[in-house]
Amino acid sequence: GAKKVTNKATLWYVPLSLKNVNKVLEVPPIQYARKEQEDEGRKRYEEQKLDRLETKQRNGDMIFPVINPEPHTVGYSQSSLIHLVGPSDCTLLGFVHGGERALPRATAALVIPRAEARFESDSRSPPAYPAPRRFAGSVVTVSGRMTFTSNKSMEIEVFVDADPFVDEPRERYRAVSAFFTYVSLSKEGKPLPVPQLLTETEGEKRRFEEGKGRYLQTKAKRQAQMQQAAQP
């Protein structure tokens, strides 16, 4: 019956105008109880800003289907999910229910069935929203592919593209892009080895090395946080 912390995260929100969802509104300043709180928050903001910038630079990438891919290759891992967004999927303002919660679910549906193990979400990069718009009346395509695998985890890159056909210009746009990390677990919840990702093209090899850099950076950051939390 004891209560314990199982997860801790910082969530970021951006205020958008209701009349023009492409316009970002200013956030009123807040009063901090301690100067350290402001400094720590600003440090986290700058870190996630750099992560988001890296994701934005990849928004021109596309995921194309591969015919008869070999097991454990990038082509074998990738897939797409297409959904017509209707009124029941949205709020009164026309935005999709659930926000970012839909991305992990879609990612799992796309890639996890091919991973040959049980995986649980471990972390994600800050999603990039290059074109904030309402999704109602759009066909949304969620595409995912593995980019990197460590001994017991894998990184998945996800793109969300929207094709509006109601009350908007009918031009496809990149709505969201992000990276997710999943950890392989046994039925008892213990980490399991992950089949290593086979890279074939220069682009796949480059993305693998970039994913390795993100993995090592996240690992070092997590270790530093654990050491800081262990200090009296």
UniProtKB/TrEMBL annotation:
Residues 203-232 are annotated as: Disordered. GO terms for biological process: acyl-CoA metabolic process; fatty acid catabolic process. One of its GO terms (cellular component) is cytosol. The keyword Hydrolase applies. One of its GO terms (molecular function) is long-chain fatty acyl-CoA hydrolase activity. The keyword Hydrolase applies. Residues 203-213 have a biased composition (Basic and acidic residues). Keywords: Hydrolase. SUPFAM superfamilies: Thioesterase/thiol ester dehydrase-isomerase. This is BACH hydrolase. It comes from Corythaeola cristata (Great blue turaco).
